[in-house]
């Protein structure tokens, strides 16, 4: 079949040479010249057989248009020795192949594929300016929408909250042997949405070369780095929670590496100085054990497995009920209802952290309902309705409603007593969930409706890893209640002070 040669749209010239713009690259063969900067290149391999498919590239031209490039495996040896990231090249003759539908790293409909007669040479004297890089950032809402679709791979920038399970209060010590064995490292990263509003905390898994690059950069920094930019991440749902995972095309940047990290670092430092803390940190709670109750803002890292997330309580006082000969018996000596009907109540243990410490919180009663929007009895009942073959003594696994709170940031009203710190558990009892403070206005926000923006951010998933509001979950409405609105008939634990 005869194919039409595409040699049109020569948009720039240099010493009588004419170059085609990436915007004008169409599908089919081209007898034309391209001039571009080689941003990055990486090996593409079959995910199952691990066989080499080819060498993929990310290219940018003088107009700032980004396109993907591809070199077949049989031609890699011809070009690879002269390829250097960041250098500018001239390419003569290529084929515009259709951009792949999965794991795309550029928006362009075509891919610049090297053919039998392609010739590439480095340009050392460049009369024009070509950007060094170009990023495609996605919001948390976009990541949620595209989760598990295997479509475009976008970039994420934020500040690190945990590195390999360690806070950044003191410089984390990374176990190189463990990382080499597991082939990955997990980072909790938090982005910001608008003004000084903190965005969602997401789990980021860096695999193989990306993990190696992260460790090398992290350890080479004189001061503990705080800002992280990771390119071309894939979105997956692991254990019911949104997670970002690196790909073979992934690159890692920190603090002052590139302009977006420098911009974010400037914002982050400013936000840290301007934002006034009005609640206690976890470290403060540990140091003020004599207080009956306290408030702190923390991010939920995980729902602890290995122990039941609920207990069967007395329908009258909610104290634990035990099996008697013919009925359940309330263990509360002051309860008038000795023989009682059992009702499932929350007793879920969660792992939380803030900028100072990590801790375990125990969710009881209303606190669990305010986070999930569901009563524990409803979740237990729904499980047995869906699993009729299970006996009454079967322990219900952690439900999706609880898993979905991972990554959320909340202000917790907690009860602090000596009992909470007995042994090595350092578990704190949560008695109420309070609304997060509205961020203070800044110079950048003068003339804008900050209240409306803050509320919109909350409804779109601000401060949550998997926002319940996206599924119509009433948990967001419950979380807006204050301590003073607690039902006096059910609030058996100490109430928070204002």
Automatic annotation (TrEMBL):
InterPro entries in UniProt: NA-bd_OB-fold, Rep_factor-A_C
A Pfam family of this chain: Rep_fac-A_C
UniProt cross-references to PANTHER family, sorted A to Z: OS03G0429900 PROTEIN (PTHR47165:SF4)
SUPFAM superfamilies, per the entry: Nucleic acid-binding proteins
Top-level taxon: Eukaryota
Location of the Replication factor A C-terminal domain: 296-438
Transmembrane segment boundaries: none
Chain residue ranges for the region called Disordered: 435-498
Protein known as: Replication factor A C-terminal domain-containing protein
């Amino acid at each position: 079949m005869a194919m039409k040669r595409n040699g049109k749209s020569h948009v720039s010239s240099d010493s009588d040479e004419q170059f085609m713009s990436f915007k004008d690259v169409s599908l089919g063969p081209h007898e034309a010249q391209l001039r571009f900067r080689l941003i990055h290149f990486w090996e593409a391999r079959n995910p199952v057989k691990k066989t080499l498919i080819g060498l993929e590239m990310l290219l940018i031209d003088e107009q700032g248009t980004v396109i993907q490039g591809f070199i077949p495996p049989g031609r890699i040896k011809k070009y690879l020795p002269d390829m250097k990231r960041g250098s500018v090249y001239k390419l003569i003759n290529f084929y515009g192949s259709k951009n792949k539908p999965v794991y795309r790293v550029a928006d362009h409909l075509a891919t610049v594929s090297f053919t039998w007669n392609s010739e590439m040479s480095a340009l050392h004297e460049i009369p024009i300016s070509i950007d060094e890089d170009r990023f495609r950032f996605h919001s948390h809402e976009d990541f949620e929408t595209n989760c598990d679709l295997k479509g475009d791979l976008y970039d994420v920038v934020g500040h690190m909250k945990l590195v390999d399970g360690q806070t950044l209060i003191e410089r984390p010590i990374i176990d190189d042997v463990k990382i080499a064995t597991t082939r990955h490292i997990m980072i909790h990263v938090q982005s910001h949405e608008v003004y000084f509003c903190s965005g969602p905390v997401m789990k980021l898994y860096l695999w193989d070369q990306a993990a190696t690059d992260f460790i090398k950069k992290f350890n080479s920094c004189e001061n503990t780095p705080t800002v992280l930019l990771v390119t071309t991440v894939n979105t997956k749902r692991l254990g019911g929670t949104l997670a970002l995972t690196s790909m073979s095309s992934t690159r890692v940047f920190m603090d002052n590496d590139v302009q977006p990290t420098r911009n974010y670092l400037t914002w982050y430092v400013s936000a840290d100085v301007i934002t006034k803390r009005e609640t206690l940190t976890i470290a403060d709670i540990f140091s003020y054990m004599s207080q009956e109750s306290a408030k702190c803002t923390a991010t939920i890292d995980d729902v602890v497995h290995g122990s039941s997330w609920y207990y069967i309580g007395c329908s009258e006082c909610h104290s634990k009920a035990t099996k008697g000969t013919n009925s359940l018996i309330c263990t509360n000596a002051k309860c008038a209802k000795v023989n009682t009907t059992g009702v499932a109540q929350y007793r879920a243990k969660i792992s939380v952290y803030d900028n100072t410490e990590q801790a375990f919180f125990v969710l009881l009663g209303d606190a669990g309902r305010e986070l999930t929007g569901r009563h524990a009895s409803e979740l237990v009942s729904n499980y047995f309705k869906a699993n009729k073959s299970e006996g009454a003594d079967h322990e219900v696994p952690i439900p999706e409603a609880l898993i979905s709170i991972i990554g959320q940031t909340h202000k917790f009203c907690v009860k602090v007593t000596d009992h909470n710190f007995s042994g090595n558990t350092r578990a704190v009892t949560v008695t109420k969930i309070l609304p997060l403070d509205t961020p203070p206005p800044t110079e950048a926000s003068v003339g804008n409706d900050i209240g409306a923006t803050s509320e919109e951010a909350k409804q779109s998933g601000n401060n949550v890893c998997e926002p319940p509001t996206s599924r119509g979950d009433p948990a967001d409405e419950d979380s807006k209640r204050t301590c003073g609105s607690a039902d006096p008939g059910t609030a058996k634990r100490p109430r928070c002070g204002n």
